[in-house]
Amino acid sequence: MKRILAALFFILISSPVWASCPSLPYTLSNGTTADANQVMSNFNTVLNCANGAPQLNAVNAWSAGQSGTPVALTFGSTITPNFSGGNIFTVTLTGNATLANPSNLVAGQCGEVFITQDSVGSRTLAYGGQWNFPNGTTPTLTTTPSATDVLSFCSWSTSQIAAQLIANLKP
């Protein structure tokens, strides 16, 4: 078994994809004695990398759609999305609010904020200074009760976001 693992490790480490793979810890998780769980975890990391599994530090080609769970934003007079939490956000307005500059903004992040009026409607939304709109014109939300608008966005720096409102979605 040791010879097989050693041979596989040698084959994998000599592969050109190895350069983009994460380095493994040099010390065992328990400090002295071989830990079978840690060894298998390390082996699976190397195997996945060598088999072409997507890497976070490399360009990847996807053969299927990628998705994440929408992040529900908590309503308040100021709504501050945490962009490290996802790319798709939802919020229901129960009063007038400001969509503040997001925390953890990175250049190149794109996504949507689904903005729904409550059953009363007529809620307005102001925007933090990093949100930039076509012609510099802040969009007006659909104010019909229960209406949903989508704010599409893409950041081009860590302090600037291009955004466009898609108003009054209908089924």
How would you describe this protein?
16% of the residues lie in helices and 23% in strands. The protein has two helices and nine strands, in the order H-H-E-E-E-E-E-E-E-E-E. The chain folds into two domains: 2-50, no CATH class; 71-166, Jelly Rolls (Sandwich), CATH 2.60.120. The model has no long low-confidence stretch (mean pLDDT 83). The strands form two sheets. The protein has a six-stranded mixed beta sheet with strand order 1-3-5-8-9-7, with no helix packed on it. With 171 residues, it is an alpha/beta fold. The protein is elongated and about 60 Å long.
Give the SSE string.
HHEEEEEEEEE
Task: Please estimate the helix content.
Answer: 10-25%
CATH fold field value of the largest domain: Jelly Rolls
Mean pLDDT across all residues, rounded? 83
Terminal residue distance:
59 Å
Helix-strand category? alpha/beta
- Report the count of strand segments: 9
